[in-house]
Amino acid sequence: MTAPTIEPVIEPVQAMDAAFAGRACQLLDQTGSPRPMALRRWTGAVDATDRTLLLERCRARTLDIGCGPGRLAAGLAMLEVPALGIDVSHEAVRQARQRGALAIRRNVFAPVPGEGRWDCALLADGNIGIGGRPVRLLGRVRRIVGPGGRVVVELDAAGTDVVHHRWRLRVAGRVTPVFDWAVVGLDAIERLAVTTGFVVEDVASVGDRHAAVLRQVATR
Ligand SMILES: C[S@@+](CC[C@H](N)C(=O)[O-])C[C@H]1O[C@@H](n2cnc3c(N)ncnc32)[C@H](O)[C@@H]1O
User: Fold this and answer.
1) Mean pLDDT for each 10-residue chunk of the chain (220 residues)?
2) pTM of whole model > 0.85?
3) Which protein residue has the closest C-alpha to ligand 1 atom 18?
4) For residue 70, which atom of ligand 1 is closest to its CA?
5) CA distance 159 to 149
6) What is the pairing mode between strands 145-155 and 209-216?
7) Which of 127, 133, 154 has the most ligand 1 atoms within 8 A of CB, as the residue to mutate?
8) Is-contact 52 207, C-beta < 8 A?
9) Helix ranges (DSSP H) in 44-156
């Protein structure tokens, strides 16, 4: 019997650093099968859908949570919307700054600058899945935006509800420990919003991409 191959371990943040730096990267599900990963979009330029679906809904001071290489934070700056990107990846923050975005290395679950005073928070391209517990994440974002603040959140198509995943990344011959992520569909957002002290103000779709705007309910 052959002994199973034990791959060297890499931390998720270092794996994201390597992926953003151009190393081939695979997202693996619990069975070890590869899942699609939109690295090309994250490292590319803002497109028309990003503009119509997301950027035009961020009308005032915006915190781009999990900004990646900063295409959206930089896109907001181009539109003269004050924006700050935060990301746990050094490489993401470096590239975001290179693109002209304001960005800092920060975990969304740690204190952020302007805590409680942001007009808007952006959770783009699957980032509602950060940490694997959307209620916890939206509860955190509720404290980041000010009273009446908004969250622009990109969602999966209806029919998904909330799906919890335990994923790993493989990059440069090394694999991360399992980390939690969640996928949230359009049909789950009303319930999540009510649970976490928001109302759904707007829902929009452009092609196969979808987003909702949540507004913080002041009395809670
Ligand atoms: C799906 S990518 C999205 C990138 C970007 N929003 C975009 O649309 O181009 C997720 C990003 O979230 C970052 N991230 C993951 N967990 C985080 C956390 N707890 N706090 C801040 N950023 C985080 C990752 O490093 C990665 O850059």
Assistant:
1) 78 96 95 92 95 96 98 97 98 98 98 97 98 98 95 96 96 95 97 97 97 87
2) yes
3) 107
4) 9
5) 28
6) antiparallel
7) 127
8) no
9) 48-49, 71-78, 90-98, 134-144
